[in-house]
TrEMBL record:
GO molecular function: ABC-type transporter activity; ATP binding; ATP hydrolysis activity
Natural source organism: Asbolus verrucosus
Domain ABC transporter: 305-527
Keywords: ATP-binding, Membrane, Nucleotide-binding, Transmembrane, Transmembrane helix, Transport
Protein name: ABC tran domain containing protein
InterPro entries cross-referenced by the UniProt entry: AAA+_ATPase, ABC1_TM_dom, ABC1_TM_sf, ABC_transporter-like_ATP-bd, ABC_transporter-like_CS, ABC_transporter_C-like, ABCC_6TM_D1, P-loop_NTPase
Domain named ABC transmembrane type-1: residues: 5-240
Length: 603
């Protein structure tokens, strides 16, 4: 409000100074108005900067608060919803969507301040000069519905762009995380095609937004000059003699309007429209279901996992992934889950972790859980940090875990042992090494229940045997261990085996019992062997095929600084014709704008 008063008072003081003679003002009064003009300009500068500083501060706080909200939410999402939310979407929410708040806060007050200011200027012109002086302002008001319509269009385009950006960022993330595989199989061209096609769709919406922006800018430029022109013409054609003070004061009022009504007001509408899309996207993300942790029910005699006739599905569109499953694993037991590929073993582990919500049945987890996922996950840091995962270092325990997970030999081979950095610009580990570090992280954590999802698949037979005997059978002997495996040779040592088929338990009990209860178990054994043979053959064939392709595909690589021709090709990427038109239009429009200003001063 104070800024408002400072800005509006300036043309009034200018008017008073210009009409000294007509109003027979004394010299001291002229000094007073002159000083007030300087003071109001100075106060305006100070207050405006203070206002912007506070708004930026506020928008920064809101952005940080929302970032941490999204971050915390992403940690609480259950797996079902994580699969709906690609990493790309979260990255887009954190970067693109939240950045809309910065602009929104800077401009939001113009939504009410600009029309109010226009209204006050309308009254001032009416009182101070002539009713005709107000005519041009009506042009500003006439354009408000058009600007609101454009705001709506901005919001539509923003939503479409955001969806396409999500897709593109997700694809790029996947390409980056799997770049080694892509390069190994020489799939670069296919992925370049995918990326280009998604990028093209994204650019289509960005282009529409840019056209709208250009149209709005053209409107705004026309509006400010057109309003002044209309006002002056009406004044002359109604028989008045044009005086310089009249033009000067009207122009300074219209300059204020030009800033607020033709720049800040439409920007405010555009930013609100874009931010409302971002708010909806963030809201949708925050409303995703979270992992629900059941309270430990102490009535169970022993710590462990108890599932009673549970059914669960990943999405309502598919049939039950798991149906009518009763499962029990208690402290001191090694419980093994076996079954063909896709039979629901990992899904069962996800039910225990509360990642997959139950459709039916009861679940009771007594004790805390440590989990080693089927796909090893490592973060950028040392191997030691990956194993400790924030837990305090206990040297003896750490040594033991490294031993039982058969990592000692690997540490000897690595340049800095367990202090070697993995991930970005660090060393690249083999699949087996990653799997064992993943297992070591789970084992190092002190828990009652250990859920180990197929940790023995990525290692060779002798290391697998060592892991099973030393880690699972010996080190974790007093714990409740739930092991998912395809390695049927280890089943003899299991206390209970659950045989899964199509999401149902078709047999459970000890090894002898399972072996005698039907032919499924024997068939499973044979299938596993067949599958492994086929998959090896397929991998070999694929490799040969790719080696053939590799002969035709050469990778280009350059060194040194970026050559000038790269900048030129960037500038001309829209085509010679479009690029030349842009340059010519820029020169012409700038000359016209400067010409208008020159003509105004001459006139
Ligand atoms: N995150 C997920 N979102 C949606 N569906 C899933 C998800 N994880 C698994 N499924 C589906 O659930 C079914 C069972 O898969 P699951 O991974 O549990 O099998 P599995 O027995 O562990 O297989 P494998 O031996 O290959 O690990 C499959 O049809 C799979 O497509």
């Amino acid at each position: 409000m104070k800024i408002f008063l400072c800005r509006l008072s300036q043309p009034i003081f200018i008017w008073k100074l210009l009409t000294i003679k007509e109003n027979n003002l004394r010299e001291t009064e002229a000094y007073v108005y002159g000083s007030l003009l300087v003071i109001s300009s100075f106060a305006n500068a100070i207050l405006y900067n203070w206002y912007i500083f506070n708004l930026r501060n506020l928008s920064m706080k809101v952005r940080i608060a929302c970032s941490s909200l999204i971050y915390r939410k992403s940690l609480k999402l259950n797996k079902n919803n994580i699969s709906k939310t690609a990493t790309g979407q979260i990255v887009n929410l954190l970067s693109n969507d939240l950045s809309r708040f910065d602009k929104l806060f800077l401009q939001i007050h113009y939504l009410w301040a600009a029309p109010l200011e226009a209204l006050i200027i309308l009254c001032l012109l009416y009182v101070m000069l002539d009713p005709k002086g107000t005519l041009g302002i009506s042009l500003f008001f006439a354009f408000i519905p058009i600007q609101l319509y454009m705001g709506k269009k901005y919001s539509d385009f923003r939503l479409e762009t955001a969806i396409k950006t999500d897709e593109r960022v997700r694809l790029i993330n996947e390409i980056l995380s799997g770049i080694q595989v892509i390069k190994m199989y020489t799939w670069e061209k296919i992925f370049i095609k995918f990326t280009n096609s998604i990028r093209k769709q994204e650019i289509r919406y960005i282009r529409k937004t840019s056209y709208l922006k250009a149209l709005q800018n053209a409107f705004n430029k026309f509006l400010s000059k057109g309003a002044l022109f209309l006002c002056v013409m009406v004044y002359i054609f109604t028989g008045n003699r044009l005086q310089s003070q009249y033009v000067f004061v009207i122009k300074s009022f219209y300059n204020l309007l030009q800033n607020n009504m033709t720049t800040n007001f439409p920007e405010a509408i555009k930013n609100i429209a874009e931010a409302s899309v971002s708010v909806k996207r963030i809201e949708q993300f925050l409303l995703y279901n979270e992992i629900k942790h059941n309270k430990i029910q102490e009535m169970q005699p022993k710590k462990g996992v108890y599932l009673e006739k549970i059914s669960a599905r990943w999405s309502s569109a598919v049939s039950d992934t798991l149906s009518e499953i009763s499962f029990e694993a208690t402290l001191g037991q090694l419980v093994t889950i076996v079954g063909t590929v896709g039979s629901g073993k990992t899904s069962l582990i996800n039910v225990i972790l509360h990642e997959l919500p139950l459709a039916k049945g009861r679940i009771n987890i007594a004790g805390n859980i440590s989990y080693a996922s089927q796909e090893p996950w490592l973060f950028g840091g040392t191997i030691k940090q990956n194993i400790l995962f924030g837990q305090p270092l206990d040297d003896v325990k750490y040594e033991e875990v490294v031993n039982v997970c058969a990592l000692n030999h690997d540490f000897e081979l690595l340049p800095y042992g367990d202090n070697s950095i993995v991930g970005d610009r660090g060393i690249t580990l083999s699949g087996g090494q990653k799997a064992r570090i993943n297992l070591a992280r789970a084992v190092y954590r002190n828990a009652d229940i250990y859920l180990l999802d197929d940790p023995l698949s990525a290692v060779d037979a002798s290391v697998g045997k060592q892991l099973f005997n030393e880690c699972i059978l010996n080190y974790l002997k007093n714990k409740c261990v739930v092991l998912v495996t395809h390695q049927l040779q280890y089943l003899k040592k299991s206390d209970i085996i659950y045989l899964l088929k199509n999401g149902k338990i078709i047999a459970s009990g000890n090894y002898e019992h399972i072996r005698n209860c039907g032919e499924d178990f024997a068939r499973l054994l044979n299938k596993e062997v067949e599958y492994e043979d086929n998959s090896t053959d397929n991998a070999m064939n694929q490799k040969l095929l790719n080696q053939k392709e590799e002969k035709q595909f050469y990778e280009n690589r350059s060194f040194g600084t970026i050559p000038l021709k790269v900048y030129f090709s960037y500038l001309l990427s829209g085509g010679w014709c479009a690029s030349s038109v842009i340059v010519i239009m820029f020169i012409v429009s700038q000359s016209l704008l400067s010409g208008v200003d020159y003509f105004e001063s001459y006139w």
